[in-house]
Amino acid sequence: VETCLFCGIASGDIPADIVAESSGTIAFRDLNPQAPTHVLVITREHHLDVTELAVAAPDLVAELVRTATLVADAQGTPAFRLVFNTRAEAGQSVFHVHAHVLGGRPLLWPPG
Ligand code: AMP
Question: Which residues, judged by CB distance below 6 Å to any ligand atom, belong to the binding site of ligand 1?
Fold first, then answer.
């Protein structure tokens, strides 16, 4: 999608610090990290959010989780949190599906 920031990263038009790739996904560092490991995993294809992705392309949900796991291991933070903010009211600000991989510091639970 032309106006989509993460489509721009997926196509290489917008620079990002890419840490992992698979055939259907790309992982790159969040610009505004909230933990020592803070990586976003996106699908190359444009999908609005994880609920839409699960219906349209369920295999890509599994691939995205697999990439997130590889990233967490490679970052040396095998204990991690995987977050899909879904809809604006839940904090989603970029409407191209992405998982936040957060690790490397104590993570509070419940999150608040
Ligand atoms: P969310 O609020 O869940 O939609 O997450 C969007 C995330 O994208 C935020 O954590 C931002 O810091 C991050 N972000 C926004 N623009 C960029 C960018 N150009 N490169 C990397 N991360 C970004």
Answer: 5, 16, 30-32, 40, 85, 91-94
With cut-offs at 50, 70 and 90, classify the pLDDT of residue 112. confident
Q: Whose CA is nearest to atom 16 of ligand 1?
A: 31
Token couple for 8? 């721009």
pLDDT in tens, 7-45: 999 999 999 999 999 999 999 999 999 999 999 999 999
Asked about 46 being catalytic, the answer comes back as no
Q: Cα(98)–Cα(45) distance, rounded to whole angstroms? A: 11
What pTM, to 2 d.p., does this model score?
Answer: 0.98
